[in-house]
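User: Run a structure prediction on this.
Assistant: Running it now.
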Amino acid sequence: MNSRLKSTLEMYFKSKIIHIVQVAFENNGISNKVATNKQSVRKYRLIFADYNVKYIICKYKSRKIILNGISMINYRNSISLYIKLFFYHKILAYNKSYIREILFYKNIDNDLKVYLPSVIADYHNTFTDIYNIAMKEESNFLDFDINTVYKIIDIILRFHIRYYNDSSCIKTMSLNHFSVKDYRKSKNLLIEMFYSLDNSFWSNDNIIRIEDFLIHMEEYMDIGLPHRTLTHNDLSIRNILLGDKILICDWELAAFQNPEHDLLELIVSIMHKLSDAEVMELIIYYKNKLINELSIHIENKLYKNILIYNILEFAVNKLSLYRTADIKYRLGFVNQLCVNTDRCISIVAGLWE
């Protein structure tokens, strides 16, 4: 651990640290695996002069995440894919992820920090060009159930409502933000990534929907009204701590986009534990609460188009990235995620018919 970071921790805890020991820590996040060539999330035991003991989590982020990510995706050493990745990798959301999480924690509304891990310090090591974030270790012991899902939705809604159509957060938090032009330029990259993978698990109806989306994705994106906000952009159950309180962690992919993206990513990560009726009820609950809190009106037909755009975009972008990473890292959750995504597309396509 860097000596400057150690001094910052001593100031935070108001006690001298006499010993620091790295202890075992398990993390399955893709971005953490490709961020550096070393272990990028570490757990430390801090022993103080009064023999008090505390545990912290340190995240290490590097600019190399882009180069490492390109290497991971282009495991077949395709010159065509390498060129597309080099010029259009922005659409995959990892640009500036090494600094985005630090800016997010520094600039997020104070009222929302109660739903986030406690950040103790951050530090940029200019010699190694590594960005560090030190956080308190948080408890994670509650079992998942449907009531917990509603609580998570209520929490993420607070973020969505606070920053709804407030584009100033794009700059202050260095958020991902994709335009129709970005998708037009990146279309061939997403197409090549998608078709390089085995797509036999998709239902016939859904492969038709996905292929239509790949051709016309700019049209799907144009929903005809301003409807964007701060989103987590990786809101799976893996990034939620269920302990003394519910906390949402790992905001390095945060974006300014349709809020429904977060809703659908959360549902896709857990829907093997949910019935179709429960999934539809969660979507309707979220829609009603969002429009009531914001005093806006979105017709069901238009809202369905928003949902379809976001789940199809997830299928060809984030899911393709997960599936490619699974080839190298054997992540363990990807096969279930594929089945869940196929089922989610079918449910969304059948809403309000």
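The chain has one domain: 63-117+138-349.
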